[in-house]
Amino acid sequence: MLPLKxxxxxxxxxxxxxxxxxxxxxxxxxRWAAKKRRLRDKVHKMFYHAYDNYMIHAxxxxxxxxxxxxxxxxxxxxxxxxxxxxxxxYSGSALTLIExxxxxxxxxxxxEFQSAVVWLSENLTFNVDARVNLFECNIRVLxxxxxxxxxxxxxxxxxGKGVYKNQLxxxxxxxxxxxxxxxxxxxxxxxxxxxxxxxxMENETTETSTSGCGSLILEMGAxxxxxxxPKYESAALRALRKLWSMRSSLNLLGTTLDVSTGEWxxxxxxxxxGVDSFYEYLFKAHILFGKEEFWRMFHxxxxxVQKYFRHGPWYHEADMRTGKATYWQLTSLQAFWPGLxxxxxxxxxxx
Length: 351
Description:
By secondary structure, this protein is mainly α. It contains twelve helices and eleven strands. The protein has a three-stranded antiparallel sheet. It has a two-stranded antiparallel sheet with strand order 1-2. A two-stranded antiparallel sheet has the order 3-4.
């Protein structure tokens, strides 16, 4: 039995411990709150450093070259490093501005968001003789316009009364129509490149990537739901289903293929370049549209990835036909995978 003096200290400690714990918790919460404020301010500063310099030195061209303080019209220059056949008097599509719209809203800058929406509404045109990459233009421009339209028409009244009359959706639909000639192939798999004014160019390459064919359903599907015109979603869905039908008996897909013949060109595959967003879009399409078809595709593909590509915590490439390892390498485009695995989101269906 403890001496009386020792028992007194024990009782005192028991009485004081809740206060000590609460004080410690309170101090921890205060430190965490201060750290979050510092991180928030740092992100805020970084965003405006990039955004303001783009607006000063590169707008309305596509992207800023930070060292030279010049610009690139990357949508038309991508794959055209010799800068041949660039449209005359073409000053880009304000690509960085389009991609920044949702960030402006997150930052709470409704004034700049409204100015950007008004400028795009009045100045952006896609009736230009520019050959663009369908995949890049879809995920960056069409996706940016559709998401900005949703932000401009939700219930938060970010824009002044009468400012917005669905102009961004009109632009998005115009762009979607210019995509459709790319899908006019024997297989329904789209060309990788399309001229915004004239459609598919003569002697255009028929080689494309799995990502290029299988990462269109989110933006084009949303466009169909918003406009009530099913042709955009139908084109993207036909391509996706055709691509899935080309999988091997192991449920693996290669990285490059021919859109005319529907034959694989590159059999070595993984979760990186050329195929990465295919997996991402299947899962997100299930969440957005609520179709079990997308989940079944994703689930089968995911199991195959885990079986044939995973090596401990890493992922290598393998032959889609045999599952045998081909390249043991880790690339930056594989970095999305853990986020995809952790994407335990409650479905919010787009109806």
